[in-house]
């Protein structure tokens, strides 16, 4: 009897290659390096957010009506960094969103200005008029402005009204602010 030669079937190359790939990925050195990279990235982002919080001190609450000229002073370029934006005749303190509305932000054109027309027409430009009454906007654009106003009311502090030419400012007291805030909460 002749013995048959031992025939071994070679393993497919893809199986060997995938085993080698998984050995490389799951090696202890690679796992350790991955953990170190994740920790470093976390520390990098954490330190940036801490610096931003340290740089922007808590500003006192501002409650007053302003003209367009007075509003222009609050574009984020002044020493305290306060940014105000007007929407549909109301002024909001958007300093918390300074990276969007402050200098260098994508919506910096709205900082210290009436953003109503730009928000209504989906344009990142603001009105350069002394006072923009929005009377030429169509109903869809006005609905958009009202939606933006509602969003700003939810997210940012109300400062006061944007005064029309010749309009007198309202004199706000601390008690009135508390009463108006309480009334808003009751309405919701």
Automatic annotation (TrEMBL):
The UniProt record lists the keyword Transferase: no
Recorded superkingdom: Eukaryota
Keywords: Membrane, Receptor, Transmembrane, Transmembrane helix
SMART domains for this protein: Cyt-b5 (SM01117)
Region (Disordered): 163-188
Transmembrane portions of the chain: 20-42
GO annotation, cellular component aspect: endoplasmic reticulum; membrane
Keyword Transmembrane helix set for record: yes
Cytochrome b5 heme-binding domain: residues covered: 66-163
Family designation: Belongs to the cytochrome b5 family. MAPR subfamily.
Family matches, as PANTHER family: IP06960P-RELATED, MEMBRANE-ASSOCIATED PROGESTERONE RECEPTOR COMPONENT-RELATED
Protein name from the UniProt record: Membrane-associated progesterone receptor component 1
């Amino acid at each position: 009897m002749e013995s048959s030669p031992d025939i071994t079937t070679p393993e497919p190359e893809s199986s060997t290659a995938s085993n080698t790939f998984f050995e490389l990925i799951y090696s202890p050195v690679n796992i350790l390096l991955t953990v170190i990279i994740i920790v470093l990235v976390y520390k990098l982002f954490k330190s940036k957010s801490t610096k931003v919080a340290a740089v922007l001190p808590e500003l006192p609450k501002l409650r007053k009506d302003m003209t367009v000229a007075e509003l222009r002073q609050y574009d984020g370029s002044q020493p305290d960094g306060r940014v105000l934006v007007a929407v549909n005749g109301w002024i909001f303190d958007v300093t918390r969103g300074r990276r969007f509305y402050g200098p260098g932000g994508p919506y910096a054109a709205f900082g210290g200005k009436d953003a109503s027309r730009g928000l209504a027409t989906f344009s990142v430009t603001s009105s350069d008029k002394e006072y923009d009454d929005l009377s030429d906007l169509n109903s869809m654009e006005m609905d958009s402005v009202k939606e933006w106003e509602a969003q700003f009311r939810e997210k940012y502090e109300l400062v006061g009204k944007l005064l029309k030419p010749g309009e007198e400012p309202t004199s706000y007291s601390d008690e009135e602010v508390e009463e108006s805030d309480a009334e808003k909460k009751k309405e919701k």
